[in-house]
Amino acid sequence: MEAATMAWTAAGVGMALVYWFVWVMGAAEVKGKRAVDLKMGSITNDKVKDKYTQYWSFFRRPKETATTEASAEKVPAFVDTFYNLVTDIYEWGWGQSFHFSPSLPGRSHREATRVHEERVADLLQAKPGHRLLDVGCGVGGPMRAIAAHSGSNVVGITINEYQVNRARAHNRKAGLDSRCEVVCGNFLSMPFSDASFDGAYSIEATCHAPRLQDVYGEVFRVLKPGGLYVSYEWVTTSLYRADNPEHVEAIHGIERGDALPGLRRQDEIASIAKEVGFEVLKELDLALPPALPWWTRLKMGRIAYWRNSLVVRVLTMLRIAPKGVCEVHEMLYETAQHLTRGGETGIFTPMHMVLLRKPVESK
Ligand SMILES: C=C(CC[C@@H](C)[C@H]1CC[C@H]2C3=CC[C@H]4[C@H](C)[C@@H](O)CC[C@]4(C)[C@H]3CC[C@]12C)C(C)C
Ligand SMILES: C[S@@+](CC[C@H](N)C(=O)[O-])C[C@H]1O[C@@H](n2cnc3c(N)ncnc32)[C@H](O)[C@@H]1O
């Protein structure tokens, strides 16, 4: 073979390899987000590293972030930064629903996710014509599943503008934009009128609130009397021991890597709900047996993580992805280890479910 032909062949093979590596290996968990499209929300490429450093220094000591009023007030802004940094990586590596669900034998992760979301609609007894509120809606995976399953209309609220745009685009694509609406705002002070929703839910979102009373109080205000509210809460369980260094490391790791101003205890949730005026109808940790572990999806993905971190490195080198993505990806990888540890030891659950009702006689 002539040298020129050999060079062209080598170049062709090289190009094919890059194509395979980036477009095929870097394909999305759920089609729609590819590694080559990774952005850092509304942060411009030159600011990603700085924003990540700011985020990290704020949440490095998670418990301290909620202790003074001044730092608690900054939490929503840093949560917004966090979601600018992670939203695309979450969509790429996990899908459009940013939460966990118990594994289901013989069913895919996608199906298990949907079942966990439809359970919310069933608990709320949601019907066509109902107006539901999704508190901390992400890019709207649960909202679309719940609207499709129940026939209800859903309004989602998220602090992160980039997520609002992603969610609206997904709603249009799914043909659900006439029944699913997304608003950018703070769930600690919501831009909705009193008694304007038939039902409300929050899936793994209220853990970002420095004081649960504030978000539950707002949900109480916007619900109609008799309206139901379901929440899946991130909490430490009764197995957590504050004098066990391994427990403390796992919980701090979860808080740091998930923008949490300090996890609450499982036994605090119902009393906070009562404090703001709710009746507690049901309370159950959905992670308890016979439910199968929610963390197996994180564990089974070791090879996928390795592949993803390679993809992210190559894309950063090629300047397709912004500088700082590798650091964010590494942080998420470590967080996954802490979450797995939290699940395996039973000291943490991301699905402590409460079903609450605003009393019929309340204003
Ligand atoms: C409710 C919250 C988010 C829960 C989960 C959706 C996310 C928690 C940790 C995330 C991930 C960890 C490892 C990532 C991996 C290194 C990467 O290659 C692909 C994406 C991950 C799997 C990512 C996906 C989302 C999580 C599982 C919190 C924030 C309250
Ligand atoms: C882990 S995501 C869960 C998203 C969605 N519930 C799901 O399961 O896909 C948490 C969500 O809460 C939102 N959030 C956190 N703090 C908020 C605040 N103060 N106001 C409004 N949204 C907030 C985030 O923007 C994000 O959309």
Detail the topology: elements first, then pairings:
Elements: H1 3-24, H2 48-59, H3 62-65, H4 69-93, H5 109-123, E1 131-135, H6 141-150, E2 153-158, H7 161-173, E3 180-184, E4 197-203, H8 212-222, E5 223-236, H9 245-257, E6 264-265, H10 269-275, E7 279-285, H11 296-299, H12 302-317, H13 325-345, E8 348-357
Parallel strand pairs: 1-2, 1-4, 2-3, 4-5, 5-6
Antiparallel strand pairs: 5-8, 7-8
The structure holds the ligand C=C(CC[C@@H](C)[C@H]1CC[C@H]2C3=CC[C@H]4[C@H](C)[C@@H](O)CC[C@]4(C)[C@H]3CC[C@]12C)C(C)C and S-adenosylmethionine.
Largest pleated sheet: 8 strands, mixed
Task: Give helix and strand order, one letter per element, not per position.
Answer: HHHHHEHEHEEHEHEHEHHHE
Q: How many angstroms does the end-to-end distance come to?
A: 85 Å
What is the number of independent domains?
A: 1
The average pLDDT score comes to 90
Compounds present?
ligand L6FYQM2W, S-adenosylmethionine
Q: Which structural category fits the helices and strands?
A: alpha/beta
CATH homologous superfamily? Answer: Vaccinia Virus protein VP39
Cα-atom radius of gyration: 21 Å
Q: Which CATH architecture? A: 3-Layer(aba) Sandwich
CATH class label: Alpha Beta
Total strand count, please? 8
Here the CATH topology equals: Rossmann fold
Q: Which geometry do the CA atoms define?
A: globular
Number of helices: 13
Indicate the proportion of strand residues.
15-25%
**Proportion of helical residues:** 40-55%
